[in-house]
Amino acid sequence: MTYIVLARKWRPMKFEDVAGQEHVTRTLMNALQQNRMGHAFIFAGPRGVGKTTTARLLAKAVNCENQPTINPCNECKSCKSITEGNSLDVIEIDGASNRGIDEIRNLRENIRFSPASSKYKVYIIDEVHMLSKEAFNALLKTLEEPPSHAIFIFATTEIHRVPLTILSRCQRFDFKRIPTTIIADRLQEISGNENLNVDRESLLLIARKSEGSMRDATSILDQVISSTDGQPTVKKVQESLGIISEELFFEFTELIRQKNDGEILQFAQKVFFQGHDVINFIHGLEEHFRNLLVTRATASAKLLETSDYFKNLYQENAARFVEKDLVHYLDILTQNESLLKYSENPQLILELLLLKLAHKPLTVDLEELLALLKNLPNLPDDATNLGDPPPPRPVPDAP
After folding, report:
1. Which of 12, 22, 312, 320 is the most buried (most CB within 10 A)?
2. Environment class of residue 123 by beta-carbon count within 10 Å: exposed (0-12), middle (13-18) or buried (19+)?
3. pLDDT (tens digit per residue) in 378-391
């Protein structure tokens, strides 16, 4: 039997299963319940957050044979054919490879015919922003006055490239990046159903690596399971995905406090010769200082997307830094990132950057300095008075 990857095997089969997009699914479910279904929708958002999945669920719901319904039954002939991708009445079009005016003209010709076996003909156009200007113009009239049996669903990762004339004819839904904890919860559910023993910290690492994409997260989980023989641990996940341990960043922040140049140079050499990607290291260091800043500013580590163990470490270390210093560290890192990326000698640039961070002058509050000056002993009241300026020197007459 052919193996089905987790991203396909555990694709949501009802609206409630679409993680992190409740603001979208709730609206669509209400529209189905109230029989207020529009004829054109556009789903915008990052990759892998459920746009195409939601489009297919909507296509199944409007054509489900067990009407009235909110969620598709996934049991009738119509639902099964859409799930298997062989429905004659649900047409999925890749906007990148079918972007010309001829393809849209064919669509306009075919849309006039009634559905073969369903209530609605549903056209799902993925990456719709890739259509040419002429193709968009050819689509306008059909979108404005479509046949009663037609529904359009567009999906795009670049909503700014879709003409306003198209947007004004569609109901727009903005999908958002999925929070790390929600992705980790979903991965934990999938792991349980697959009889996989994956600890929570490993799932959080995978979720953070996916950058808010559920599809990427399930694909990474598939990869990790294969590379670790089905027994993933935190260390194995870090090695498999090239993730740098957070403990390394805490080690560096301790070296910053000590200002030991020799130790810092040895640390840079260790980072470089352990095979860590220097750009990944810089990104991790930026996130580390950002986590310290958030913890310091909010007096809590609750907002951090990491394990409880590291939350406690951030809570302990944040008190040792001043917010202005942390902001300055982040500024130095972001300004020098491109220099490191394109350097022919990245080890030297990394060493200089770490030394620059360590020797950055600590921020001193001006009001605190003034208060210290006022409290100095034996300081005369007019100590800050520099006296009258010297008289102007006479300008010699021109000869």
Report:
1. 12
2. buried
3. 655 555 555 566 66
**The residue to which tokens 């992705």 are assigned:** 183
Q: Are residues 196 and 325 in the same domain?
A: no
Q: Which residues lie across from 394 on neighbouring strands?
A: none
Q: Which amino acid is at 333?
A: L
List, as one string, the DSSP characters of 87-144: -SSEEEEETTTS-SHHHHHHHHHHTTSPPSSSS-EEEEEETGGGS-HHHHHHHHHHHH
Query: 3 Cβ partners below 8 Å, 6+ apart?
Result: none
Structure tokens at 62: 């409007």
CATH of the domain at 234: 1.10.8.60
Tally of domains within the chain: 3
Does residue 369 fall inside a structural domain? no
Dist CA 182 CA 268 (whole Å): 35
Main-chain dihedrals φ then ψ at residue 295, nearest 5 degrees: -65, -40
Handedness of CA 204, 208, 210, 211 (dihedral sign): positive
The C-alpha angle with vertex 229 and arms to 226 and 235, in degrees rounded to 5, equals 90
Q: Write the pLDDT tens digit of every residue in 33-72.
A: 998 988 999 999 999 999 999 999 999 999 999 888 899 9
Strand-pair partners of 43 = 155, 173
CA 29 → CA 69, 84, 125, 151, 394, distances in Å? Answer: 9, 23, 21, 16, 88
Is 384 among the domain residues? no
Q: pTM of the full predicted structure?
A: 0.80
Tracing tokens 């500013």 back to the chain, one arrives at: 297
Helix, strand, coil abundance in the chain, percent, nearest 5 = 55, 5, 40
Q: Are residues 17 and 151 in the same domain?
A: yes
Please tell me the distance from the alpha carbon of residue 157 to that of residue 137, in angstroms, as a whole number: 20
Which CATH number covers residue 149? Answer: 3.40.50.300
- Who contacts 251 (Cβ-Cβ below 8 Å, separation ≥6)? 267
Cα separation of 38 and 4, whole Å? 34
Domain of residue 280, residue span: 246-358
Report, as ranges of residue numbers, the positions in the chain whose pLDDT lies below 50. Answer: none
Contacts of range 249-255, beta carbons closer than 8 Å, 24 or more positions apart? 249/284, 249/285, 249/288, 250/288, 250/313, 250/317, 252/285, 252/354, 253/288, 253/292, 253/317, 255/358
